[in-house]
Design goal:
The chain contains two helices and five strands; from the N terminus they run βαβαβββ. It is α+β, with helices and mostly antiparallel strands and 99 residues long.
Length: 99
């Protein structure tokens, strides 16, 4: 059986409660290509992992106070770069780390 393909996503969140924010961060960073910013990470998910992550996040979020965005990255796009960009650890040409 072949390996399931992972898709790149940008996961970003604004969670007001420190405890909820920490629990969401722990779930998201488990899939992160690199640690990235405090509340925005490039992550790689299979379809099953995406469903599982979203199910956990929905349970953790407070719908009145918190926000979560999971944006699928287009591997065929040319990135618009600012600053000093360095290729990501996974050698994916459309994902860059800024130092």
């Amino acid at each position: 059986m072949g390996e399931v393909k992972r898709t790149g996503y940008l996961a970003a969140y604004d969670v007001s409660d420190t405890s909820r924010r920490q629990r969401i961060w722990q779930r998201v960073q488990a899939y992160a290509a690199e640690l990235g910013q405090r509340s925005a990470h490039v992550i790689w998910l299979t379809p099953a992992e995406r469903r599982a992550l979203l199910a956990v996040v929905v349970e953790l979020l407070d719908g009145d106070e918190d926000q979560f965005l999971l944006l699928r990255l287009d591997a065929h796009s040319t990135p618009l770069l600012r600053g000093r960009a360095v290729g990501a650890a996974h050698d994916v040409p459309s994902v860059y780390r800024f130092d």
